[in-house]
Write a structure and sequence with these properties.
The structure is a homodimer.
Chain A (H helix, E strand, L loop, with lengths): L9 H11 L6 H9 L6 H13 L3 E5 L4 E5 L3 H17 L4 H10 L4 H12 L2
Antiparallel strand pairs in A: 1-2
The structure holds a DNA duplex.
Chain lengths: 123, 123
DNA sequence: CGTTTAGTACTAATTAATTAGTATGCGAAG
DNA sequence: CTTCGCATACTAATTAATTAGTACTAAACG
C-alpha cells in the first residue's frame, strides 16, 4: 500500500500558500488565484480544499453564500514540519549537510550568512 | 492524473542511500540492508530497483549469478536536485528563508555556521 | 542426474494524489 | 414566479507509488 503523506503534497501546498495570504478564502478566491498560474477546474480546487479540511489544514465555516475557509495551522508551523520531514528523510535528521548544499549551490550571499549568524549569536 | 515525481520518492531514496554506500550492489545486498530497518519482501526491493533503473538512477550489468547494480548518478548531484526541488516548491526558489528555519529550529551550533561562513569566504 | 536454492519476470492488488464531470439546490434577477 | 448562476455533494476516472505473490529458469549441491 501507500501511506498518506505526513506533510503537504505539491498541490496542497500550492493551495495553502494562497490561503495563508488572506484571513479567509472561498473556493472561488483560491480558484481564481490558482488560475493565474495554471489551468484547473473549479471543482478540483473544491475537492482539494475538502481534503485539506479533512487533514486539518483548513477550517470551514458556513457563511451566507459559500463556505469560508481559513488556515487551521500557522504557515510557520506547517512549513517547519515540512523542513523537518525533509531533513529527516534526506539527511537523516542532521541539518548541516543541507546547509552546505544551500551555501554551495544556492547563491547565498555572505550578507545572508552574516545576517543569520547574527540572529544566532544573540538569542 | 498524477505526474511522475521529478525527484526520488521516500522509498526510492531509502534504497539509493544504501546503493551509494557501495561500489556495486545486488538486490540481495540491498534487501538485507533494508531488512535491518523495516520488514520488506525481496521481490519488493527487486521491483523498486527495476523502477530506479528505468528512471536512470541505477545502472544494471549482468554478472554470473545476479544482476549487479551501481548508481547512475552521483549522490551529490541527486541530493542537490532534491534540495533544489524542495526550495522551489516550498520557498519559491529562495534559499534564505530555509536557512532561517534551520537556524531557528534545528539546533545548529554557532560553530556550524562559522564553519559554513568560512567555506563561503574563500571560494 | 535429480533436487534444492536463488534470481528474475510477470502479474496484480491497494492506496494516495489529482482531476473533473454531473446532479441538485438555493438565492438573485427579471 | 420562473430562470439563471453559483455553490456544493457525489461520483468516478487516471496514474504513481508501493507491496508482494507466483511461475519459470539456471545454478549449486548431493
Amino acid at each position: 500500500m501507500r501511506r498518506r503523506s505526513s506533510t503537504l503534497t505539491e498541490h496542497e501546498l500550492e493551495i495553502m500558500k494562497i490561503v495563508w495570504l488572506h484571513d479567509t478564502s472561498t473556493v472561488r478566491d483560491v480558484y481564481e488565484a490558482l488560475l493565474e498560474k495554471r489551468k484547473v477546474a473549479y471543482t478540483t480546487v473544491m475537492t482539494m480544499m475538502k481534503v485539506l479540511e479533512q487533514k486539518k489544514y483548513l477550517k470551514k465555516s458556513q457563511a451566507e453564500r459559500a463556505y469560508v475557509y481559513r488556515p487551521a495551522q500557522p504557515q510557520r508551523q506547517v512549513i517547519g514540519a515540512m523542513v523537518r520531514d525533509f531533513v529527516n528523510r534526506v539527511f537523516n535528521g542532521s541539518a548541516s549537510p543541507l546547509l552546505v548544499h544551500l551555501v554551495e549551490e544556492h547563491d547565498l550571499s555572505r550578507e545572508d550568512l552574516e545576517e543569520i549568524a547574527r540572529l544566532r549569536r544573540k538569542p
